[in-house]
Specification:
The complex is a heterodimer.
Chain A: H1 8-12, H2 21-29, H3 33-48, E1 68-69, E2 87-90, H4 100-113, E3 118-120, E4 127-130, H5 137-146, E5 162-163, H6 177-187, H7 189-193, E6 203-206, H8 215-218, E7 221-227, E8 232-233, H9 235-243, H10 248-253, E9 261-264, E10 269-272, H11 282-286, E11 291-292, E12 297-303, E13 317-323, H12 328-348, H13 355-362, H14 364-371, H15 392-401
Parallel strand pairs in A: 5-6, 6-7
Antiparallel strand pairs in A: 1-2, 2-4, 3-4, 7-12, 8-11, 9-10, 12-13
Helix pairs in contact in A: 2-3, 4-5
Chain B: E1 3-6, E2 9-12, H1 27-34, H2 44-60, H3 66-73, H4 77-83, H5 87-95
Antiparallel strand pairs in B: 1-2
Helix pairs in contact in B: 1-5
The chains are: A alpha+beta, B mainly alpha.
The structure holds protoporphyrin IX containing FE (2 copies) and iron/sulfur cluster (2 copies).
One iron/sulfur cluster binds near residues 208, 211 and 212 of chain A.
């Protein structure tokens, strides 16, 4: 008979109409002694106001250096079922498409061999299995392999690449995010499973500037769809929005950050100065039936974002202003550039230094020179911002004048 | 603290099986620890890697970065995983008696 914990503090978190992780853990606890002990431990932590997890275990499966995050409780005598509580990351399919069979298979493996608690999906994009014991790792790995799944990344490796649903469901996708995500995953299998970089190395792909996977804030390499030609306008649909009561002038035109839209209130017509458009997606999001991205589409490649851990947060900035990922040559150039960046960062980067921090330390000019890329004015941190590249020729001239 | 027992050895280790007192390390203990990491036989190449790790650690007080290890021993990463299937951090460092490398999510 599993121990029954009284959890008055946790019970508070079941109140209210929103989802509650306490409810979920309690549900899992019916069948899982691990989840049951997790409740007890958490209640105790709330009472004592002390976390009881240790940090930084090293566990894994044979052949891989990543994919499992080791965790132990510091009071195993009191909570023996969660003395080990390792997390497993599992590579999700591009765009998170599953059959219900696949989901059942995953859950069956996990209920048998772990806490039964999952996180679908973690902020890395992976399927996250929360809580198992060291002895279960190899069996889980082989059962997952048999079911066609593989572990994801952790530590200083290529982290599991992730992408938005893209052309799978979304009309705004400017390139095939699903395909690129799959290709990067397959191309860098070694780098994904066997950590050898200074620190984590993340790729995220969004099909348009809405950036549904937040690649601009969370990926060392952010690949965001865009278009080169004009926003497509359906004049009839604009009139329909007006008829339906939309305040087109105030809610669409005045909110354009580039102030590049004009509205003819009589004719109910919009005119866009596309040269000044920042591709922010605002007007398109507001009137999806009337406005759409252009048809000459591709992606922008940006570099350097990260969340604050060792140093503060960074956003990615433009490295390649436009790339057509359907073109074989341009794709190969892209991969060559990625590998060049890896070499420079691995050679010169410090341990636990993300590529964005590395660039800040050595300077963007030096970094570009090292990877063999010419600085161009499009390399900006924000649309329509000043380029941050210092043009040496210009600088030299000025000095000579003095 | 868990203990690791193998033949004549009975030593204190942490949850992940890393020895807690680096002073007690010797080659026999290394060979014994290797059996827990899928290494059946410590060949000359295994020792080359282990000795490199130990020397580096004694000089700098930390484990080398993986790329450096590969470069300076001449073993490609693939070869390192063939020798130590659980990898350089978990496998080779444990056998070399280094303190557990700090984990990183
Ligand atoms: C000092 C304590 C801790 C620190 C500083 C810490 C820090 C972090 C950071 C920075 C991340 C990455 C977040 C992201 O970018 O997605 C992370 C992820 C994670 N941590 Fe911790 N952590 C701590 C303790 C723990 C403990 C005690 C557990 C479990 C018992 C845990 C489980 C996890 C898991 C499962 C993830 C991955 C989540 C995902 O992939 O979505 N961590 N942690
Ligand atoms: C009162 C207790 C807790 C609070 C207030 C809390 C709060 C949060 C918050 C704010 C996030 C970030 C969500 C996001 O930005 O997407 C998060 C993420 C997460 N939490 Fe908790 N959490 C609690 C307990 C737990 C427990 C007990 C577990 C594990 C058993 C857990 C596992 C995770 C994981 C794996 C993530 C990453 C999810 C993701 O990034 O998608 N949390 N938590
Ligand atoms: S990022 Fe753009 S293309 Fe991708 S799902 Fe979101 S809106 Fe659609
Ligand atoms: S996409 Fe943004 S910047 Fe461009 S016209 Fe629409 S609102 Fe203005």
């Amino acid at each position: 008979m599993p121990k029954e914990y009284k959890t008055p503090m946790l019970d508070e978190l079941e109140k209210g109409p929103w989802p509650s992780f306490v409810k979920e853990i309690k549900l899992a606890a019916k069948n899982s002694p691990m989840s049951n002990d997790l409740l007890g431990l958490l209640e105790r932590s709330y009472n004592e106001r002390i976390g009881h997890w240790k940090h930084g275990g090293i566990v894994g499966v044979m052949g891989y250096g990543g994919g499992v995050i080791g965790r132990y409780v510091d009071v195993p005598e009191d909570f023996p079922n969660i003395s080990h509580f390792h997390t497993i990351r599992i590579n999700q399919p591009s765009g998170w498409f599953y059959t219900s069979d696949a989901l059942r298979t995953l859950c069956n493996i996990w209920e048998k061999r772990g806490s039964g608690l999952t996180n679908m999906h973690g902020s890395t994009g992976d399927i996250v299995f929360l809580g198992t014991k060291t002895d279960e790792l190899e069996p889980i790995f082989s059962e997952l392999t048999e079911a066609g799944f593989d572990l994801g990344g952790s530590g200083s490796d290529v982290r599991t690449p992730s992408c938005c649903v893209g052309p799978g469901r979304c009309e705004w996708a400017c390139y095939d995010t699903l395909k690129l995500c799959y290709d990067i995953t397959m191309r860098y299998q070694d780098e994904l499973h066997r950590p050898a970089f200074p620190y984590k190395w993340k790729f995220k792909m969004s099909g348009c500037p809405n950036d549904c996977v937040a690649s601009i804030a969370r990926a060392d390499i952010s690949i965001i769809g865009t278009w080169k030609d004009d926003i497509r306008v359906d004049a009839e649909e604009i009139k329909n929005y007006d008829k339906a009561g939309m305040d087109i002038f105030n809610d669409v035109v005045l909110n354009c950050p580039a102030k590049c839209m004009k509205y003819d209130a009589k004719a109910k017509a919009i005119e866009i100065n596309n040269d000044d458009c920042r591709h922010c997606m605002h007007c398109i999001n507001a009137m999806p039936k009337a406005l759409r991205p252009g048809t000459d589409t591709g992606a922008v490649v940006l570099i350097g974002s990260k969340a604050p851990i060792v140093e503060g947060a960074l956003l990615s900035s433009v490295l390649i202003p436009f790339i057509n990922l359907d073109d074989e040559d341009e794709r190969e150039d892209f991969f060559d550039l990625i590998e060049e960046i890896q070499d420079v960062w691995c050679e010169e980067g410090k341990a636990r230094e993300r590529v964005g921090e590395f660039i800040q330390r050595v300077g963007m000019g030096n970094f570009l020179e090292a990877i063999g890329v010419e600085p161009i004015p499009e390399m900006v941190a924000y649309p329509r911002d000043n380029p941050y590249v210092f043009y040496e020729d210009y600088y030299d001239d000025e000095e000579e004048d003095e | 603290m868990p203990t690791f027992e193998h033949g004549e050895f009975k030593v204190e280790v942490d949850e992940d099986g890393f020895i807690t007192d680096p002073e007690i390390w010797n080659e026999e203990l290394a060979t014994a620890l290797a059996t827990t990491e899928g290494v059946d036989e410590m060949t000359e190449e295994h020792w080359k890697l282990v000795n490199y790790l130990r020397n580096y650690y004694m000089q700098f007080g930390i484990a080398p970065m993986v790329r450096k290890l590969c470069k300076e021993t001449g073993f490609p990463l693939k070869k390192v995983y063939e020798m130590f299937p659980s990898g350089p951090a978990k496998g080779a460092c444990k056998v070399a008696g280094l303190p557990k490398p700090t984990g990183c999510v």
